[in-house]
Fold:
Amino acid sequence: MSKSKTMIDVMDTSDISKEDIKNFTKSLNKDVKTTLAETKKLVLSRADNAVGGESSDADLVYNFAYKLRDVLPLKNFMRGRDENNFSQLKEFTVSDMKLFTDVVLCVAMEENADSIAENDSYFYRVLRDIACPIIYELKYKVIQKGADGKFFSTPIGRKPKEIYISFSDVNKFDKLKNKYSGGKPADYVSFSTFNAIANFRLLGKENDNDSKSPLLRKLENLYNYLVKNKILSQDPTIKADEINCINFVVSDLMLMLDRDNQFNQIADTLTFIADDEPQLDQDEKEGLVNFHKHIGNVHFGKFDSKKVSKVITAQTGEDFLKQAKSIN
Structure:
């Protein structure tokens, strides 16, 4: 079964080597290194203390996307892309947000994504949470100085400081215009608002998790893991536990489809043939039927009313159901 190719499909984050990080650092001048050092301190501060989080997040987006715009290692994000530069990108996915975190923001912090995620998950979470608004600013350049010549408001009391942005992009969309700008050309907004606008423009929703069920969120996490990990453990005990869990999960997921009468989907999953890729030869099609070419095609059998076995050779889930139904 085919699916749209995303950056996560064409690039492994492990491709980012120590040499990549070293080369990035070597290319920076003294002022940029100072800004990066300040930015790294902000990330550490934000990871250690959630107090003043919105103000820190606004500072981080400003530093990464505005002050460091010209030196971020965006070429890492462009590997495997048909587009020549970042500004040409038109569509983004949740997987792209993670990839941007891993190969741009983590490298800018002079760290490997896997090392950060393993040794300081809070530090990594800070970077992941600001990836979307950073990409939005890099693409649409909305951050600017207010009438007072400042990028940030002066907060009163416990209200977080706000960042000044142009609404030139927001006002193109009635939903965003009515909710956030009221038709104004520009104004100070909180990081939460800036983040909601960025999520809507890049991912089509103001909050990535707003429209997701608990099941979908868990399945997406599993999907993101399986994209790059399809090998069982080498430890016999752990492998046995993995197999038991797989059997349970696959069976229960099939039960969920069955209870919702999703019979075509069940059949498609069982036959698992890329019938929507007619240009491919049969042995090039992706699918369970063709994983083991040495045993030939897999056949499905059903007994008729006289207990005579009837062979079903299914090319698609729909074929499977039609042939199964025709046997009496």
In short: The CA atoms of residues 177 and 214 lie 30 Å apart.
